[in-house]
Specification:
248 residues, alpha+beta, Aminoglycoside 3'-phosphotransferase, Chain: A, domain 2, five-stranded antiparallel β-sheet, three-stranded antiparallel β-sheet, 8 helices, Aminoglycoside phosphotransferase domain-containing protein, Aminoglycoside_PTrfase, AGP_Transferase, Kinase-like_dom_sf
């Protein structure tokens, strides 16, 4: 019998792996609906949906290996990173999905959340005030008008699978929808700034690197409390707190 491996688990959702099958259990049915819908629409490689019985979605494992992990050096080639950029561009050029996604949050609400998290980080002594202040300044560049595209919304490198220099699959589409293209580019390069040039080269168009760096700061500032409260450690070398320190 195959071993049951817990891939991720917290109060909102859990993902288990049994052999070549992933079982996703989600308390929010809307996230599963969004994931299934996005995978049916997006013109890039995605895993096969095997069956669905709420609150569980079963999908086949993507072939190959993850592009990398946050906090660990990536063993993928520069060509693989460039291939990821090309696939992301193909996704962004696709017809818009019907709903807004995580990368398409209202700017006023996002700004309010960011300011609230910054205050919490300083008030509770989680991070030094100068570190928070500097990154809040950097993050401001991301809070600007943008043209909506088809976005993944949670495009961390562990969700991009490659075999050699080819992208074989992108997983975890529950946050997909209309959003800011640079949010996706920032997410896939978070903590791996050395590969930003490879991704942008594969993406094949001019992008505002300052906005990508702003999203690194914004995502990290917003993520620290959630990570701590859900049993993850943003202070792990190479992870969110180090991303913030790199902006000093």
């Amino acid at each position: 019998m195959d071993e049951v491996k817990v891939v991720v688990a917290h109060s909102e959702r859990a993902t288990l792996r049994v052999g070549d099958v992933f079982l996703k259990v989600d308390a929010d049915q809307a996230r599963i609906d969004a994931e299934v819908e996005a995978m049916s629409l997006v013109p890039v490689p995605t895993p096969e949906i095997l069956w669905r019985k709420p609150p569980v979605l079963a999908i086949a494992a993507a072939p190959g290996t993850a592009l990398g992990r946050l906090g660990e050096p990536s063993t993928a080639s520069p060509a693989a990173w460039a291939a990821a950029g090309a696939v992301i561009r193909k996704m962004h050029d696709a017809p818009l999905p019907p709903r807004p996604g995580r990368a398409g949050r209202d700017l006023a609400a996002l700004t309010a959340d960011l300011d609230g998290e910054c205050e919490w980080l300083v008030t509770n002594g989680v991070l030094p005030a100068d570190l928070v202040t500097r990154n809040r300044q950097v993050a401001q560049a991301a809070l600007r008008p943008w043209t909506p595209v088809f976005t993944h919304g949670d495009l961390q490198i562990a969700h991009v699978f490659v075999d050699g220099d080819e992208v074989t699959g992108i997983i975890d589409w529950s946050e997909a929808g209309q959003g800011d293209a640079l949010f996706d580019l920032a997410t896939v390069t978070l903590g791996h700034e050395e590969h930003l040039g490879d991704v942008v080269a594969g993406y094949g168009t001019d992008v505002d690197l300052d906005v990508i760096r702003a999203w690194w700061s914004l995502r990290s500032l917003l993520g620290v409390r959630w990570l701590v409260e859900h049993g993850f450690d943003p202070f792990t070398p190479g992870c969110e707190v180090d991303v913030l320190r790199a902006r000093m």
